[in-house]
Structures are given as C-alpha cells and as structure tokens.
Design brief:
This protein is an alpha+beta fold. The chain has three domains: 32 residues; 88 residues, 2-Layer Sandwich (Alpha-Beta Plaits), CATH 3.30.70.2210; 253 residues, Phospholipase A1 (Outer membrane phospholipase (ompla), Chain C, Beta Barrel). The strands form two sheets. The protein has a twelve-stranded antiparallel beta barrel with strand order 5-6-7-8-9-10-11-12-13-14-15-16. Strands 1-2-3 form a three-stranded mixed beta sheet. Helix 2 runs antiparallel to helix 3.
C-alpha cells in the first residue's frame, strides 16, 4: 500500500513538473507589453540626456511617430553643443529624426501682449558642475591643461630639442544660471615644464607653477568673459644649474600675481578673444606690469575622416610691457577627437609653431623660434 502511494505521488509530481514547464514556455514565448518600448520610456531616456548635457536649459520634449522634438526656451545652443546633443540622442535607433527648435518668451510677450506667457524656468544653482563655460584658447601655451609635446628650435638658446609638458585643470566650483546669463566661479591650476632632450642625461630647463581663481560670465551663450586673479612662479631645473654653475648668477626669482580680464565672442566655428592683464605684485619689483593678449580659435562645424573628428586651429598673440610690447606669436592647428558623452574634454593633436619672446618663465627676455607637435587634453 505504501509503495503504491509513493508511486502515485511521483507520477503526480511528474505531471505537475511538465505542466509548469509548458506554462513557463508559453509565458516566455508570448509577446508581453514592455515599458522599454513605450513612448514614456523614450521620453525619460531623452530627458536624462538633456538633463546631463544641458542641465541649465528649459527643455520640453515630445515624440510623434518616432520623431523627437525638443523645444528650448532661450537663446540657441552653440552649434557644437547642439551637434553633440543630437549624437547622444541618436544612439538609440528609436528616433528616426531629432528636431531642435528655440523660442524666447520675452520676445513672444513683446510681439503679442495678449498671448499668455509660460513661466520661465527658475534660476539654477549648481555646485561642482561638469565642464567650464569659458572655452580654453587653443594656441595659448600657458593655459592650464594636460599636454605633452616636442619643440624643435631653429636657434639654440637654452636647447635645440625641447620636450614640453603641462599638467593643468580648469575646475568649476559653482554655477548660477538665469534667463540669459551664466555665472561660474572656478579655479585654474597648472605646472608647465621644459626639458632639454638633446643632452645626455636629459636636463630640466624650467618649470612654472600657476594657480588662479576665476569668475566667468557668459551672456546669450555667445559672449564669454573671465575675470581672473592668478599667481605664477618660475624655477630653474637642477640639471641645468649643475651643468652650468654660472647660470645661478643670471637666475631671476620670477614670481608675480596678475589681475586679468578676458573676453571672447563665438561665431559658430570662430571665436575671437582679447585680454588685458596687470601685475599687481611682482618679484623682481622692477618688472613692468601691463600685458595684452588676443587671438582667434577655429573649430569646424562638420566632422571628417572619423565620425568623432573635427579640424581645429588657433592663433594667440601675447605682449608684455617688460619686453616693450614685442609680440610672441603662437599658432596651432590639427585635429580634435571628441565623444558626445565625455562632456567638456577634447583630445587634440596639433602642429605647434611659435615666434617671439620666450614664454618659458624667467627666459622671457630670450627670443624663440620653433616648430613642433603637441597632444593636448583640453576643455
């Protein structure tokens, strides 16, 4: 009797197992409504990207027949920012087309006072935001960034072949955005080094240490300004002093603090800029205080060679009262690799040319003329 009951239970268990297996297969095989394929899902997907890429913008999203429409309340985005935003949104094949349009409630109200005006997005305050709102000049050799390069000098002053490197960063600490203006408080810091690689062993020629505090102001996404207070100190390399002890008599304890104003305006691919600086404290005290600088940057709107590559170029001119305002010309041109997800950082491979007074710290009175190449990670 007991054996019969056990066999019956095993038989029923086998039937239950087959029944559960069939039901599980039917459940899996039957198409189920999935939130991941709904319009709400892709609205949320697009919203997460716009909140990350352009958090300061007031954006409305709609999807109709797989066409994504973005309406931005405010001034048009920079052409390169708009392109990178579309690239990120296009990573899903759900959107057949992405349209971006702009409107300005203030203009609508001025043209037709009878129309109801939507409430503007409240001012945005953001601590430790991504990127910076003042773009780095492409050809300025003293702008803090991570870079490594080679300089072949036509005339030997301190070296014929120089290995140039810099470690630097521009870090935004706080950002405030209202209707048409963005304010940003940030710090800049960098180390600029030059080494003579034609000697054996390699000699450290000079190293400059830079730190600054800057207030950036951008109006209508095009007019960029920065007010910066900075410190720079210059130090000769140990190997250079050891190889030529007489150089210590010529050494200058170069150290100064500068108050500077920079202004730039973006015309899509072109960005001209100007700057004026005044050295408020200096060692040696005999240094003349006034500096001028200016230039123009170019970043192509269209990509070529690779889907992530643009052509870039920059011209930078720096003059100092100490050198009777004789200009130093820096020209850089090459390619820029970018990733739409990697906000605010671009990898550049550049040809590097300079003619004029040296920008290597205490060698500022010497003339330089070189050509080389540079790999730079810039903002």
């Amino acid at each position: 009797m007991l054996v019969t009951i056990i066999k019956t239970c095993k038989h029923m268990k086998s039937h239950y197992f087959h029944l559960i297996s069939i039901l599980s297969f039917i459940t899996i095989a039957t198409p189920q409504p999935s939130f991941s394929y709904s319009k709400d899902y892709y609205i949320g997907y697009a919203r997460s990207i716009t909140d990350d890429a352009i958090p300061e913008e007031d954006v409305k999203l709609t999807i109709t027949n797989h066409i994504l429409d973005l309406t931005i309340n405010g001034d048009p985005l920079d052409i390169h920012v708009e392109q990178r935003l579309k690239e990120r949104l296009s990573r899903t094949k759900y959107f057949r087309k992405i349209n971006i349009q702009y409107k300005n409630n203030a203009c609508i109200a001025a043209n037709n006072l009878s129309l109801p005006v939507e409430k503007e997005k409240p001012a945005l305050n953001d601590f430790m935001p991504s990127g910076t709102i003042y773009n780095a000049p492409i050809a300025d050799p003293k702008w803090p960034r991570f870079s490594v390069g080679y300089q072949n000098h036509f005339k030997k002053n301190h070296a014929r072949s120089i290995y140039f490197l810099s470690f630097g960063e521009n870090l935004a600490l706080f950002r405030h955005k209202n209707n048409s203006e963005v304010y940003e408080l940030g710090i800049q810091a960098g180390l600029f080094g030059a080494m003579d690689i034609s000697s054996n062993p390699t000699k450290l020629i000079n190293s400059d240490y830079f730190v600054g505090l800057g207030l950036s102001i951008v109006k209508s996404k095009k007019w960029q300004n920065m007010i910066q207070f900075s410190h720079l100190s210059s130090h000769l390399g140990d190997e250079l002093i050891v190889s030529d002890p007489t150089i210590t008599k010529k050494r200058i304890n170069l150290s100064y603090e500068t108050l500077k104003w920079l202004t730039a305006y973006k015309f899509n691919s072109l960005r001209p800029y100007l700057g004026i600086g005044y050295i408020v404290h200096r060692d040696p005290s005999s240094l003349k205080p006034l500096t001028f600088e200016g230039g123009i940057d170019y970043i192509s709107e269209d990509k070529f060679i690779l889907p992530t590559t643009r052509a870039v170029a920059g011209v930078h001119i720096h003059s100092w009262e100490e050198n009777k305002f004789k200009p130093t010309l820096n020209v850089r041109a090459g390619l820029q690799l970018e990733n739409p997800v990697w906000q605010g950082r671009f990898l550049q491979g550049l040809i590097d040319y300079s003619y004029g007074k040296s920008r290597h710290g205490q060698f500022y009175k010497q003339k330089e003329h070189y050509i080389g190449f540079l790999i730079s990670l810039s903002s």
